[in-house]
Amino acid sequence: MLKDNTPQFCPIRVEDLDLVMAVERAAYPIPWTKSMFETSMSSSDECWLLSIGGEILGHVIISFILDEAHLLNLCIHPKVSRRGLGRKLLQHAVQRAVLRKSQMFFLEVRVSNNFAVELYFSEGFNEVGIRPNYYPAEKGRREDALLMTLELSIDQFV
Fold it and tell me: Is 120 annotated as catalytic?
């Protein structure tokens, strides 16, 4: 039997969206909209929840095109941030990409998000460029994104 503190992963369902949105709004000053989640859920994107003891604490959205995976959104509720749950969610996303035989995993991250940048580096991602003015920021400003990639090998995760 699983302990209450064991992270569980399951696909996001329509009935989960209000709770997903609560996590998204708590974590980000400029969150995804509900329609963005609905679009991902109705496409071929994979949309996953992370929960502990039945409480939704995070989510990840991954897009797949040919042999590439693209991390669209990774979010952990701030009340449990910096406890390794973002790492577990990222590892889950990478495992999903391997299962789908992706060769490369891409992501963008705000240049100011030092914790996320360090997480991605520690999981083997490499910086390959900058996307200028990629993210909306407060007061109508824009923020650059680091473009990062991870080369995937089926063998490395077996």
Answer: yes
pLDDT score recorded for residue 5? 82
pLDDT cut 90: percent of the chain above it: 88
138 is catalytic: no
CB-based burial of residue 141 (10 Å sphere; 0-12 exposed, 13-18 middle, 19+ buried)? exposed
pTM assigned to the model: 0.91
CATH code at 8-157:
3.40.630.30
Q: Residue 21, by phi and psi: left (phi above 0), alpha (psi -120 to 50) or beta?
A: alpha
Sequence letter at residue 72: L
Q: Of the residues 120, 123, 138, 143, which is catalytic? A: 120
What does the domain layout of the chain look like in residue ranges? 8-157
Among the listed residues 108, 118, 123, 143, the single catalytic one is 108
